[in-house]
Amino acid sequence: MLLTVPLLLLLVSPSLGAPLSGSIARPRNKLLLISFDGFRWDYDRDVDTPNLDGMALDGIKATYVTPPFLTITSPAHFTLLTGRYIENHGVIHNMWFNITTQEKKQYYMTQFVDEYWDNGSLPIWITAQRQGLKAGSLHFPGTAATYQGQRVQVREVEPRFYDYSNETEWRMSIDTVLGSWFSEQDLDFVSLYFGEPDTTGHKYGPESAERREMVKQVDRTVGYIRTAAQKHGLTDRLNIIITADHGMTTVLRNGPVKEIILSQIPGFSFRDIKFQLADYGPTAMMLPKEGMLDKVYSALKGGHPNLHVYKKEDMPGRLHYSNNPRILPLILIADLGYVINGLFPVQYSKGEHGFDNQAMDMKTFFRAAGPDFHKNLVVGPFETVSVYPLMCHLLGITPETNDGSLEDTRHMLITSEDTDISEVAPSRGPRKKLLLISLYGFRWDYDRDADTPNLDVMALCQVKAIFVNIASPAHITLLPVFKKDAN
Ligand SMILES: [Zn+2]
Fold first, then answer.
1. How far is the CA of 311 from the centre of ligand 1 (A)?
2. What span, in angstroms and rounded, lies between the C-alpha atoms of 113 and 176?
3. Structural domains in the chain (count)
4. Percent of the chain residues past pLDDT 70, beyond the cut
5. Same domain, residue pair 246 and 265
6. I want to staple 222 with a disulfide (CB 3.0 to 4.6 A). Which of 51, 102, 357, 486 is the partner?
7. Is the confidence at residue 478, as pLDDT, over 90?
8. What is the 343 CA–ligand 1 centroid distance (Å)?
9. Residue 9 pLDDT > 50, yes or no?
């Protein structure tokens, strides 16, 4: 009878499940929040990423994180900055629009429309500044806007036509943030944005060689950031969080795929529509003309097997994309891989995002390292609304009302209690019991393609190693011993 190789180590101790202390037993450290736009949670699987791997060893890696719906850039970034779902922070789209004048502004120009961003939820820069901290932001969506009369004090907004993929520019940005802002100007918090691998993912698709090359550039950049932190003497007092706004999926075309083209749906006419946002990836929103809502809804619903149509009030609650006056009365969502075209197909991207945030391809990544984080700890998934309360906690500021929870991330943090335990454990307290469980031939990554809620929960509560090496002969000789005992 074959039995097992030691693999899982379960420490049953009196401290398991004990409440963690909320405070960090050291002076406040600085915090750098970095977003690499459109970095899907699994982009490090098919590319060598020594610097991202090194950061996971030195800190925290989440299996993945779930962005808010719509899974698009400005709304999802504003969720990182506010901890609010999109219906609650009100930045409901990348585009600003006016239903009366029909005016629309694309992503870049929307950055300068104050009233679009400033509608009740304060980004963390303003809250930090109001509580006496110094904040900065470089290229992060929302940087240019004024909130209740205040802007982020130190900022850099990219020019109208900007190459978001230029690695030399990236390094200049990093030198600005770490050298000038953190070191010389002594800022406490900075948000830093890079526009890749999103653009490459759109253009060539997430499974392309070009995307893999861009992930290598991201990885080199992570190495550059950590070296720069060291060079400026910041390593011991700077926490770094790296995440993104959404993932990316391959757009399905040709062959058996029937594209969604609204004008071809029987009974639907754009003449019944007062204002619409279509031709923008996998979602669309519509304001039908007076009295036309039910007619338009009935025509579109069932109009294409991969198109889902909701009246605003019937949107699934888990999407948190309903309760805001800016959201239009009809919302259209395509299945993964499909995009919604209006009059005729005008979207040619090979990769797209904006889909239901339950889809694994929309999930993104999360890494963190620094003096307040545990080392070499892999944690289970959480929603990106919870990055905000984590950041407020790290900065020691009181958060605004938000939809996240510090309980989602608290286990990542070194607390004063951890320090106490490591200092006194050998000489104090009852002896801990130890249960060693091993599973025969359980490869390190067997939990990647199967739902393993119980293993995930165990990782959340305590420790998960990325993998372990079986190198020593002593280990191998254990095998027959275990077999014999079992028989
Ligand atoms: Zn994006």
1. 26
2. 26
3. 3
4. 83
5. no
6. 51
7. no
8. 25
9. no
CA 82 / ligand 1 centre spacing (Å): 17
What pLDDT was estimated at residue 466? 58
Domain range for 453: 1-24+437-487
Say if residue 317 is in the same domain as residue 398: no
Question: Which of these, 254, 296, 252, lies nearest to 271 by C-alpha position?
Answer: 296
Complete DSSP assignment for 209-236: HHHHHHHHHHHHHHHHHHHHHHHTT-GG
What gap in Å lies between CA 481 and CA 239, rounded to an integer? 45
Q: Are residues 133 and 43 in the same domain?
A: yes
Cα(71) to centroid(ligand 1), Å: 8
Number of C-beta neighbours around residue 470 at 10 A: 10
* CA–centroid distance, residue 422 to ligand 1 (Å): 42
Cα of 197 from ligand 1 centre, angstroms: 9
**Per-residue buried b or exposed e for 402-420, using 16+ beta carbons within 10 Å of the residue's own CB:** bbbbeebbbbbbbbebeee
The tens digit of pLDDT for each residue in 272-315 reads 999 999 999 999 999 999 999 999 999 999 999 999 999 999 99
E strands within 129-233?
A: 135-138, 154-156, 189-194
Q: Are residues 342 and 371 in the same domain?
A: no
pLDDT band at 220 (very low <50, low <70, confident <90, very high): very high
Task: Say yes or no: 58 and 126 in one domain.
Answer: yes
List active site positions: 73
Pair (204, 225) in one structural domain: yes
pLDDT band at 24 (very low <50, low <70, confident <90, very high): very low
Q: Would 85 be classed as within a structural domain?
A: yes
Q: Is residue 431 part of a domain?
A: no
Q: Does residue 187 belong to any structural domain of this protein?
A: yes
* H helix runs in 23-123, sequence order: 50-58, 73-82, 86-89, 107-110, 114-117
Asked whether residue 130 falls in the same domain as residue 89, the answer is: yes
Sort strands 154-156 and 135-138 into parallel, antiparallel or unpaired: parallel
Give the start-end residues of each E strand in 49-206: 59-62, 65-66, 96-97, 104-105, 135-138, 154-156, 189-194
Neighbours of ion ligand 1 (CB under 5 A): 37-38, 73, 198, 245
pLDDT at 5: 35
DSSP strand pairing (366-369 vs 340-341): unpaired
63 and 186: one domain? Answer: yes
